[in-house]
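Quick question about two entries, pasted in order.
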Amino acid sequence: MTLKNAALLALIGTILMTALLVWTFVSNVLNVLRGVEAPVVLFHSLIFAFGCFSVMVFFYVFHRAQR
């Protein structure tokens, strides 16, 4: 497996994880607006979604930099 293929595989996995965490964040926002969950849940969910998005951007740039 080449470094470019490994970067692509990591990018695909991170895209899927980011989609899942963003969906969870949106669900938490809706639940807070409905009064089902405490607002502190949003902070936790936002940190996870932002962290995974940052890793996804890193893998995208890393994949593009490989020849």
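Here is the second entry:
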Amino acid sequence: MSNWSDQDLNALTERVIGLCIAVHRALGPGLLETAYAACLAYELNRSDIAFKREEPLPIQYEDVKLDCGYRLDFVIEDVLILELKAVERLERIHQAQVLTYLKLSGKPIALLINFNVPMLKDGIVRLRK
């Protein structure tokens, strides 16, 4: 689907993780996901990184695309799904959700980020198809 090399995808994910860390350092844990998303959108825009928020994700069922209300928190540079959480801890269902998003969207890579942790590095999961 994309012409991005693994090296390019790694560089992009590292850059986005850096912005997430900056937001987390400024705000800390304990806020709603929407606050982190708004600040991250500001940082992405300021860094000239192309992104879409709340991107619809239709489900392909047989020969029909159905809008079932799924939305991707962020799609960055049309290759990276960024799913944000502000939960006590990430569960397997969160990873399953993102893996399904990868499958349905055809995107090559995703980051699942939980902002409700003392150190953001402990709330980051990188997933590939």
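Reply: The mean pLDDT is 96. The chain has one domain: 6-128. Hope that helps.
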